[in-house]
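Renewal narrative, Specific Aim 1. Our central claim is that a sequence can be written position by position from structural information alone. The example that follows is taken directly from our test logs and has not been curated for this report. It begins with the structure tokens describing the chain, in the order in which they were read.
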């Protein structure tokens, strides 16, 4: 039930299974844990050692026999906080190195929904106006439902402005996106609709495709080009299209 979550915070598969077994059965012998967790007895010993080092399990001696029990799950929050504190300690130095590196022109891919979230994070980090060509309300993809509110709150806090040139179909099929992103926005003429979208912000030009308004491909790919000169050129293309489109 909790295995995936436990693995997300750094436990191995066996450690996650053993810890979950301890939560379910309480104080128990290695044999009982092995049966409940469906982990080989030898691997249970290794996992219990690692869990004890993390402060998630402890030994209990009963009538000369050694059993094990789980530590309160609130310890998991402490582990997460400890990791965050370690990152915070080194983050200023890491950011200084990142920002001092010579700006390079480069091209790469973002894959999947997590890659799409990386693209959204780039928008927040750039803190510049975003220009959308052929926008298709991809942000309404159900797989982004839990991420988007946080993104929107941070975007508004940073004062990042959006300028949208939506595909014509969005007006009829996904009008809720209009209230979400806010004005200014316009619509491309219907004959210029396509599956392609281009977003420009800072020194980024990001292109991708989708199946229909409000829905990305099952495994979306974003083609990222990073070049201030290229982005400036695309912004000029955007301005021409913007000036050529009628007000809605």
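The sequence written for that structure reads:
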């Amino acid at each position: 039930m909790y295995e995936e979550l436990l693995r997300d915070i750094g436990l191995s598969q066996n450690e996650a299974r053993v810890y979950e077994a301890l939560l379910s059965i309480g104080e128990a012998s290695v044999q009982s844990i092995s049966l409940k967790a469906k982990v080989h007895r030898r691997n249970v010993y290794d996992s219990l050692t690692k869990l004890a080092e993390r402060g998630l399990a402890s030994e209990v001696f009963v009538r000369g026999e050694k059993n094990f029990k789980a530590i309160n799950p609130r310890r998991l929050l402490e582990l997460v906080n400890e990791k965050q504190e370690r990152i915070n300690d080194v983050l200023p130095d890491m950011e200084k190195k990142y920002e001092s590196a010579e700006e390079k022109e480069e091209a790469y891919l973002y894959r999947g929904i997590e890659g799409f979230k990386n693209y959204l994070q780039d928008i927040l980090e750039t803190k510049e106006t975003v220009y959308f060509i052929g926008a298709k309300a991809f942000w309404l993809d159900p797989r982004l439902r839990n991420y988007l509110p946080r993104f929107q709150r941070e975007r508004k806090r940073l004062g990042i402005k959006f300028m949208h040139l939506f595909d014509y179909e969005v007006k009829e099929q996904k009008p809720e996106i209009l209230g979400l992103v806010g004005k200014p926005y316009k619509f491309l003429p219907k004959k210029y609709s396509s599956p392609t979208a281009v977003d420009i912000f800072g020194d980024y030009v990001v292109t991708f495709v989708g199946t229909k308004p409000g829905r990305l491909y099952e495994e979306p790919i974003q083609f990222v080009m990073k070049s201030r000169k290229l982005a400036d050129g695309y912004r000029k293309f955007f301005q021409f299209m913007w000036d050529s489109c009628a007000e809605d």
